[in-house]
Amino acid sequence: MAGGWNRPGSMPGLDGAAGVWPSRQIILPPADQAPGLARLATRDVLAAWQLAGLADTAVLLVSELVTNSVRHACTSLALRLEIAGTSLRIEVHDHEPRRPQPRTPDGLDESGFGLVLVDALASKWGVFDTSTGKAVWAELQFS
Fold this sequence. Notes:
- By secondary structure, this protein is of the alpha+beta class.
- About 30% of the residues lie in helices and about 30% in strands.
- It is built from three helices and six strands.
- Helix 1 runs antiparallel to helix 2 and helix 2 runs antiparallel to helix 3.
């Protein structure tokens, strides 16, 4: 994996001891391999956090967000996974300031369904500006 996982701060269990929740970040290349690397890394992290039950949906969200970044931003990107309370937060950061433009694809379109899937699968999602571009995020609830 490009750069390997960055483990900021102390990493308590999922109890959020001391108000610090687990998080992982990986830097990915703007290349066709990025979505596959992101999917593998997401499964590994969720297994380590004992959240494998979220893996299928989380991996699909990660794949869509990373693919969109590779396709449209064409810059290096970072995948960040974080637990906050009863949510898994997925963020994809890139260096492109333009925000994604959700659209409703026609039935015969071969692309354009990514954010439709994100909207359908995520508890909530959005975009925020960063000092170097933007981050697209999605959250999944768990109990």
